[in-house]
Amino acid sequence: MSTDNDRPEDDSPEARRLRNQGKLEHPANRQRLIRDLAAAEHSQSELALRYGVSQQGISLFAARHAERIATVAGKLDDEFAGLWVAQKANRLAVLEHQVDEVLDVMSDPEKAAKAGVQAAEMMRVVQTGLKQIAEELGQLPGRVSVTHSGSLTVQLNGVDVGALT
């Protein structure tokens, strides 16, 4: 019996191109290559050697991500430049979408049954999403807990505590 592992890997130019594109599109590689291209400190041929792809692969990548590369080029000192998740509005939009999706499923019993998720779990997802949105917007008060044992001495500048009666 033959398995997928027994098959020889397709070594056609198109298959190699797709594998290399996938390598470059891995999130960590993608962001690093975008920054490398934005910094323009190395040629595309040098970057191709570094990333283990062809120069054409780097060129195609640069064309696909030209807008992000330009954004990062103007903000090389910002390590988060070009990452959509670094923008509060983008994170809020994703959270809002997720909350809307869960509320949509909860409003339709047939969808909820197909999702196979209990109502309590869906409500927790909505509550968590709404809390994350409020945190992003700075709308939750900071919660500080202080524990102290022993004595406490307080000094009020400009106040003679002995004169208070």
Overview features:
165 residues; mainly alpha; 2 domains; disordered N terminus
Structure description:
This protein is mainly α and 165 residues long. It has two domains: 13-82, no CATH class; 87-136. It is 59% helix and 0% strand. It is built from eight helices and no strands. It has helices spanning 13-25, 27-39, 44-51, 55-64, 66-73, 88-107, 109-115, 119-136. Helix 2 packs across helix 5, helix 3 packs across helix 4 and helix 6 crosses helix 7 (109-115). The protein is flat and about 90 Å long.
How many separate domains make up the residues?
2
Shape: flat
As a percent range, the share of strand residues is under 5%
Rg of Cα set: 27 Å
Number of helices: 8
Number of separate strands: 0
- Structural class of the secondary elements? mainly alpha
Secondary-structure element sequence? HHHHHHHH
Estimate the mean pLDDT confidence: 81
Distance between the termini: 96 Å
- Biggest β-sheet description: none
Topology of helices and strands:
Elements: H1 13-25, H2 27-39, H3 44-51, H4 55-64, H5 66-73, H6 88-107, H7 109-115, H8 119-136
